[in-house]
Amino acid sequence: MKDKKGIIISISVVVVLIYSTLSIFTDIFNENVILDYIMLFLIFVTGIIILKFALEINKTDFTSKDKLFNSLVQSPDSVYILVHAKSKKVVYLSKNVEEVLGISIGNKSLEDIVFREINIPTIKNEIHSWDRNTEYVSQMVAYDNPKYNHEMWVKVKIFIYKEKNEEYFVIRILDATKEHKRQHLLISQAADIKSHESILNQITTKSYDLEMNINLTLNSYELKYFKKDNLYFGEEKRGKYTEELNKLLEYINESDRELVYSNLNIETLKEHFTKYELDSIAIRYRMGNEVKNNTWLESTIFFITNRQKNVVSILTKNVTESAESIREQNVMLQNALNDAKLMNKTKTELISTISREIRTPLTNIVGLSDSLLHQSLNDSVKEDIKNINDSSNEMVHIIDDLLDTSKIEKRIIQKNEIEYSLLKMFKRIEINAKEYKGEKPIKININMDNNLPVILFGDARRIVKALNEIINNAIKYTDEGVIDINVRGEKINNNVKLIVEVIDTGSGIEEDKLNTIMNDNSNKGIGAVKNLMKVLDGKFEIESKVGEFTKVTTTFMQKIVEDNKVREMMHNNKIAEEFSLKGKKVLIVDDNKLNLKVTNRLLTAYELDITLLESGEECIDLVKEQNNFDLILMDQMMPGLDGTTTMNKLKEIENFNTPIVVLTADAMEGQKEKYIASGFNDYISKPIDKVELSRVLKKFLKDK
C-alpha cells in the first residue's frame, strides 16, 4: 500500500516537471494552445491512474477487515450469528454452523434459525420472556444434533450490539458436550474417593492402636487412640511438637529412645521432605515401664504433602505377637494411601468448583436483600426481606461446614477467625432454634447482658455450630416448657470471656448416662461439641437433675474489636458500623453486572466516589489514564485477564501504589493466605459480609 502511494506521488511529480518543461518551450514559440491540450491530456491520464490505485487500496482495506472479523469469531466449538434486531435478518453467520450444530442454515431469518432449525424448547421459552435489558445466558441444555448419533449439550449467549442507530443481536451457540462430560466424571470420581476413604478408615482403625499427626509447617501435633484398652503414651493430647517430644520419649524403654528420637526429631522429618525421601519408614521399640517392658510397638511413619503443608502421620500397633501380620497390613495401608493421594487432587477441584458455583448466586441474594433493608419499606415487607437475608447467610454457613476441605481430608477442624457482631450471631442462633423446635410448645428466651461488647474477633461460625448442637439437643429432650439461653461476659484487658448457659426444663440425664455422654468422642451431638471446644480453646460443663433440668455451660475467650454496649446497639438497631468516606475513590472490577450492582449498593452508605468496570483490560487502561484511586476491589474469576493477572499488570504501572482487595467465591480453607501471598493487600469472600467490608474500608480508607 505504501508502494502504491509512492507511485502516485511520483506520477504527480513527473506531470509537474513535464508541464514546467513545456512551459519554457511554449514561451519561446508562443504555442499556448498546444500546452493546454497536452496538459489536459496529462491530467486526465493521471486522474485515471490515481482512481485505479485508490479503488485497489479500498478493496484491500475491505478484504482485510472481513478477514479480521472472520478470524475473531471463528472457533471449533462455537457458532456466531449476527442478526438485525428490527428486521430479524441474519447479517453474519460463522462458516462452521453445519460442523458444530449439524444443520444447514442458508439465508434464513432469526425465527427460522432459533425456533425451527435449532429445536431446543427450553431456549425458545426463555428467549420469548427475555427482557433484552440484560445479557442473556442459557444454562447447559441438551440438543439433538441431526448429524451425530450421540447426545449433544449446548450453551447459548445473546447480547445487544448497537452501531449508528442500528441494533443487532450477537448470538453465540457453544458446544458444551465436553464440559458436561467432565462434570459427570468429577461426580463419579468423588464417589470413588468416598469409597476408598471408607476402606482406608476401616483398615486403619482395625490394624492400629493409635495415630499421631505432626504438622511440620505449624510445629504442632495431635495424638489420638483408636482403641482405649491400652493408653501407651498416656491420655490423648495435642500441642507443640518440639516441646512435647521428650515427654513422649519417657514412655519408651531407655535403650530404644535414641532410635526413636533419631527418626522422629523435627529436623530429620523435615529433611525427608527436603530430599523428597517420602517412602514410609517402620521402626520398632519397647515400652519403658516394668509392666510393659516386654511390649513391642511398631510405628509406621508416612510423609504427606497436602495443600503446601508438610504432614507426618505415624500409625502405631502392638507387634509383640504378630509382627508378620502387621507388615502385611502395612502394605495394604500403603496401597490404600497411595490410591487416596492420587484421587485427592480431583476431589479438591470438585469441592472448590461446587463452592464457587453455589456462592456466586448467594452473593447476589445476600447483597441485594441486605441493601433493601436500608430502604424505606413497610414493616411486613422489611420483615420478609430480613428473613430472606438471614436464611441466605445461614445457607452460606452451612455450605462452609459441608465444604470444609480439612475436615473432609483429616477429620480435624481449624479456626477461621473474623470480626463478627454478637447480636447478629445470636439472632441466627435464635432463628435456628425456633425452626428446629417446630410445633413443640417450648418457649425459647435469649437473655443477653447489656454490657457486652458488640463486635468481637473469633471463630463465630464454629461457636454457632457448637451452640446449635447444644440447643438442638435441649429441644430434643424437652417436650414442653422453657429453654433459657443466658449470655454474659467477663472483660480481661482487651478480651472478653464469653459465657453461654443453655438451661432446659426437659427430662434430665441420669448420672451413668451423663458419664457416657461426657466420654463421647464421635462427631455428633455432645461428641461434636467436644471436638469444637478443642479447636476453639473453649470449655463446657453439663449439670443435670432427672425430671427437672439440664444446664450446659460453654466458655469462649474472644478479642474485643468494638466496645460499644449491646444495649446501645439494640437501641440504635444497627449491626455493622457505617461511616462516611466522602471523597474517597473506589474502583470495582467484576465481569458480572449483577455482582457490580450488589457491591455498588453495599458501598452506597459510605458516600464513596465509585467507578464500575467489567474486565481486567478496562481496569488497566483506566488506571494508566488516571492513577488516582484510593482502593480497588477486584473479582478473581473473570474471562480474559483474571484478578491475579490484572493485579500483576497494574503493579507494573509506574507510581502505582493503590491497595487491591480480591473479591472471590473461592472461599475454601487456605485461599485467603494464598491470595495475600500472591500480592493482594486483603481478601473478601463472596457473599460479601458487611462487617468484613466495613473492616476493609476502615483499614484502607478511614485514616488515609
Helical run tally:
22
Oligomer: single chain
Rg calculated over all Cα atoms: 36 Å
Q: Structural class of the secondary structure composition?
A: alpha+beta
Overall residue-averaged pLDDT value: 76
Helix content: 40-55%
The CATH architecture of the domain at 413-572 would be 2-Layer Sandwich
What's the count of strands? 24
Determine the CATH topology of the domain at 413-572. Heat Shock Protein 90
**Any idea of the CATH class of the domain at 413-572?**
Alpha Beta
Strand content: 15-25%
Overall 3D shape: globular
**Main sheet summary:** 7 strands, mixed
Overview features:
six-stranded antiparallel beta sheet, 704 residues, Beta-Lactamase, seven-stranded mixed beta sheet, alpha+beta, Heat Shock Protein 90
Ordered list of secondary-structure elements with their pairings:
Elements: H1 2-29, H2 32-73, E1 78-84, E2 90-93, H3 97-101, H4 110-117, H5 121-128, E3 136-137, E4 141-143, E5 152-163, E6 166-175, H6 177-207, E7 210-215, E8 220-225, E9 237-240, H7 241-249, H8 257-264, H9 266-274, E10 281-286, E11 296-306, E12 309-318, H10 323-372, H11 379-402, H12 405-410, E13 418-421, H13 422-437, E14 442-448, E15 453-458, H14 460-476, E16 481-492, E17 495-504, H15 511-518, H16 525-536, E18 539-545, E19 549-565, H17 566-572, E20 585-589, H18 593-604, E21 609-613, H19 616-625, E22 631-635, H20 643-650, E23 660-664, H21 671-678, E24 682-685, H22 690-702
Parallel strand pairs: 14-16, 20-21, 20-22, 22-23, 23-24
Antiparallel strand pairs: 1-2, 1-6, 3-5, 4-5, 5-6, 7-8, 7-12, 8-9, 10-11, 11-12, 13-15, 15-19, 16-17, 17-19, 18-19
